[in-house]
Amino acid sequence: MHRYRYRCTVCRTTSPVVLDPDDLEAEGTAHRQGVHGGHIPDDEIAGQIDRLGRWYAALSPLAALHARIADGLSDLRDEKTMGHYWWASAGAALLIGGTAALTLLLVSAAL
Length: 111
Known about the structure:
- The chain starts with a strand and ends with a helix.
- A three-stranded antiparallel beta sheet has the order 2-1-3, with helices on one face.
- The model has no long low-confidence stretch (mean pLDDT 88).
- It is mainly alpha-helical.
- Helices cover 52% and strands 12% of the residues.
- Helix 2 crosses helix 3 (86-110).
């Protein structure tokens, strides 16, 4: 399940987490109409977040991969909560480390 959040850097406000992109668009539109008279604030941010509330776009590629895997594993148990379960975070780290080790092993065997 994907989670989204709208952030206005002018007002320094962040919307609650929404689960649908249409709700995200409605959240941003309502804020712009109500507070800014329909104008679009500079540097506003709207996008997908992980279960810890971090923007995927702001994460490094490795951290984003870990967050997506941990989010997917955590969603197996409970889709609507925030935060990673410890076993989901550990499982994501093991999966990434195991894949890296297997790739290294295959490359060294091919050479």
